[in-house]
Design brief:
The chain is mainly beta and 177 residues long. The chain contains 1 helix and 14 strands; from the N terminus they run E-E-E-E-E-E-H-E-E-E-E-E-E-E-E. It is flat and about 55 Å long.
Length: 177
Amino acid sequence: MIANSLKDVNGGYHDSYKEIYKGVEVDGTRCTVHYNKYGEMVSVNGNFRTIEGLKTIPFVNESNALEKATSYIEDSLRLRGYVVNSIKSVINCNKQLKSNLVILILSNKPYLTYKFLLESDSPHLFLYVYVDALYGKILVTRNAVCNVSGSVSTVYSGTQSIEMDYHSGQYRLRDYG
């Protein structure tokens, strides 16, 4: 399935494809085909996986998986001494589902999973939780936010350090000085 197509400044274009197995997206895989300005293919790169025999019909329903994911995160935070106000599921792009059914590869083994994006304001949290759609087990959690630190050249103040973080659904640049 084509994920996106980009045109570059030289007139070439690049088509990226997602891997699909029996109608389910394989999380984290992508293959990109690069074309020059004449439409000739010049290179291909990416990371597809070979998957065989994986059941793609979930045994666990989505609402039970979401409950398991939120409980897991709340319990983990309480063990670390946090007072948890609320963990909420972020509605994904199609505005209907709270999760995506995806195939996750862990240690070269494929798993059919519900991929939830969970958010909390206190403590600040934005992460993906993968719940096995066949057995209901939490397989892994991954931070969905990358805070960025770096240096920029300014017109009046020379080189300055900056930090960008994620808060309430948006990235922000803040000055703590």
